[in-house]
Write a structure and sequence with these properties.
single chain, alpha/beta, Immunoglobulin-like, 2 domains, ten-stranded mixed β-sheet, 36% strand, elongated
Length: 335
């Protein structure tokens, strides 16, 4: 899809609570070597990371663990194209991200809406709600203890906050946390670029009719990697040929969407629509609309989708969930 589709996707993310504010993360640094503070400190941390072109998404808290004192706070800044939450459950079960509604699947308010107050004492629910690029979430800590937190969107994306008594010396400075976050983030992005290259090579070696719709990997114990690209993104086939896409990501869904996107925001593309049926579509024209529905191992229509092209032309397609991050492609169908 063209720039109009991308603007539409951004608008829909804003309607979900996003306020797009660029992709740079500004991490404030305390003085190197600081061991104690005369007052409360607002520590800085990042949620997620991504490569410049947004192809590789790092689903991790950076740093994963922070030690603060009672009375301090932490401000997390969303530093990736993917959205996340910062959620303290206090031992309760995590609410599902998506639930069934009268009109079909919908986001669960218990997961995507902010809840809890500005401070946390180790009990109850404290949830940032969905955070989008550049958005921040600040939480103060009023009781000593060790508290775990997670992202409700990405399985295994966990972190730990150690809260010491007020006035206790800190084991690290902000600058040291920033360095740790930078090193770990760059390491994970490099691993993602390697995964992207290997997935592309495997798809090309599998034949002209094979492609990947995303890729990913769980990275224990910090989180996961997601590759938001069609691999390859451009293919040439002949009339009557088929292309099969496989989602190699264990958790992140994608769509293969031709023509006009289904209405209803991201979840409007959950079900197959247009000319598509579960797992397959036959396209008779480059202008024909078809949406695969969510493709992924954890979703009801499986991890593969096949398109057969009945007439020549140039067929443009997108992932309806990630086209604003560059996940688009083209099939050239020759006579």
């Amino acid at each position: 899809m063209g720039s109009g589709s991308m603007r539409g996707r951004r608008a829909r993310r804003i309607k979900l609570g996003a306020a797009a504010a660029g992709t740079a993360l500004a991490l404030a640094a305390l003085s190197p070597g600081l061991a104690t503070a005369s007052g409360a400190v607002d520590w800085q941390a990042a949620v997620g990371a991504s490569t410049r072109n947004q192809a590789v998404q790092v689903n991790a808290f950076l740093p994963q663990s922070v030690t603060v004192d009672v009375g301090d706070s932490i401000t997390w800044t969303l530093a990736s194209g993917e959205f996340h939450t910062v959620t303290f459950l206090s031992g309760a079960a995590a609410p599902p991200l998506i639930i069934g509604g009268p009109g079909g699947p919908e986001f669960n308010p218990a997961a995507v809406a902010p809840s809890g107050g500005p401070t946390y004492d180790g009990t109850g629910l404290a949830n940032s709600g969905l955070l989008f690029t550049g958005q921040k979430y600040t939480l103060g800590f009023t009781q000593a203890g060790t508290f775990s937190f997670q992202c409700l969107v990405h399985a295994g994306m966990n972190g730990t906050i150690h809260v010491q008594d007020a006035g206790a010396p800190y084991p690290r400075t902000q600058a040291q946390y920033d360095t740790q976050a930078l090193v770990n983030g760059n390491h994970l992005k490099a691993a993602g670029r390697t995964l992207e290259a290997r997935t592309l090579a495997a798809a090309r070696s599998s034949g002209a009719g094979q492609a990947a719709v995303g890729a990913g990997a769980l990275v224990s114990p910090v989180g996961s990697l997601a590759i938001l690209r069609f691999l390859p993104s451009q293919l040439v086939v002949h009339t009557g040929d088929s292309v099969e896409w496989t989602n190699h990501d264990p958790e992140t869904p994608h769509t293969i969407t031709f023509g006009e996107e289904p209405p209803g925001g991201p979840l409007g593309a959950f079900l197959p629509s247009g000319a598509a049926v579960p797992g397959h579509v036959t396209l008779t024209s480059p202008t024909e609309a078809a949406n695969s529905g969510f493709v992924g191992a954890a979703f009801p229509f499986g991890s593969t989708f096949t398109a057969t092209f009945a007439s020549p032309g140039t067929y443009h397609f997108i992932c309806a969930l990630h086209d604003d991050l560059g996940m688009t492609g083209t099939i050239t169908v020759l006579p």
